[in-house]
Amino acid sequence: MFSQLAALAALAGFVAAQQVGKKTTETHPKMTWQKCTAGGSCSNVNGEFIIGANWRWVHDKNGYTNCYNGNTWNTTICKDGKSCASNCAVDGASYASTYGATTSGNALRLKFVQKGDYSTNIGSRLYMMNGASKYQMYTLLGNEFTFDVDVSKLGCGLNGALYSVSMDEDGGLSKYSGNKAGAKYGTGCCDAQCPRDLKFINGEATVGDWKESTNDPNAGVGKYGSFCTEMDIWYPGEANSISTAFTPHPCTTTGQHRCEGDGCGGTYSDDRYSGTCDPDGCDFNSYRQGVRDVYGPGMTVDTTKKFTVVTKFLKGSSGQLSEIKRFYVQNGKVISNFESTIDGNPGNSLSPEFCEKQKVAFNDADIFANKGGLWDDHYANMLWLDSTFPVDADPQAPGKGRGSCETSSGVPVEIESAQANNQVVYSNFKFGPIGSTFKQP
């Protein structure tokens, strides 16, 4: 999986073993967030975070033998998907010492590299919880989501991410008989990229046809993937100190589903667009839209200091999503999203019209409309976020320059050493009706 810093606000998830281990007590980090009303009054909510199951220790349910070690399966214990799910357990997590994930008050801090007593952990993925056993569900339509973020210690090739996906609220616990762990242990992951590096999907192990990664000692790619609708509020990798974007990824299906092989589409398939979801989405990246002097160190949005991110999901007269608007707040100043300077693609928000014109201006396939419209990367080194991508393209060509990082940057083995102390801090989460989480002039 991507070596990345990630936090997830779940709408409806990485899945590893389905039984519950008892070697380490599972204690979720606690963090308060605020639920706001139409009048602008906000009240504290006691929330929790949980680390995804793909990061957890997977062992035989009666002992300490690894079911998955490095990037390979123990085929003695895991002969097939169903028996592996029955024989193996996902255990509790030590969040601070193992993963470098800590909370304090209304803040969540994620470290990139955490050196523990027995191993070194790279990256993490956390999910917001409603209590101990259910993911936090949000209805974005007609509402806004606001948070503070500090990306001053997050550089090229790294992914400071916050996004929403339509997972099952209980992580698939009630839907799949082979899943005994559920949301409490981070199961049920899906997204529009249809990840195929998941160890367990739908209560079964992906042990068959598993191919170990050639450049990631902890990951591989399996036969199956898990897909669902995704809204990148501050993800994927689309928010470091160099570049930022927000991106909806529609699907023609509802909720989490399992797919197989190249039929999944997305990052891990030969045919990127063969699945039921749009892996590209329609993104607003100011740098990519030709505005290259507004977001970054010392710029209008100064990424050396903490700032507030506001995302509004506006409902049109038809009752459907009509527009996604972005604001920033820093030093008491409200900063509207920046106007695109791309010929034929004006605007500073995402709408059906903007997205249609963007695909034409950038000469991109319009999978977004076809599917319904409105993370350190071992596959592409995060260059699609903060550099020129494809790497042989002219960085001045429309849509190809996505950030100022060099095309040689982002190599995982290099940044895991040189940028081991990188981190991201999220705080002051707020959610409520349009106009309720911050004062707009």
Please render the helix and strand layout as text.
Blueprint: E1 5-8, E2 19-20, E3 30-36, E4 42-51, E5 58-60, E6 68-69, E7 72-73, H1 81-87, E8 88-90, H2 95-99, E9 101-104, E10 107-111, E11 113-115, E12 120-122, E13 124-129, E14 143-150, E15 160-165, E16 200-201, E17 204-205, E18 211-212, E19 220-221, E20 224-227, E21 230-234, E22 245-249, E23 257-260, E24 284-285, E25 295-296, E26 301-302, E27 307-315, E28 321-330, E29 333-336, H3 352-361, H4 367-370, H5 383-386, H6 412-418, E30 423-433
Parallel strand pairs: 1-13, 1-15, 2-8, 3-30, 25-26
Antiparallel strand pairs: 3-4, 4-13, 5-8, 6-7, 9-10, 10-30, 11-12, 14-27, 14-30, 15-21, 16-17, 18-19, 20-23, 21-22, 22-24, 27-28, 28-29
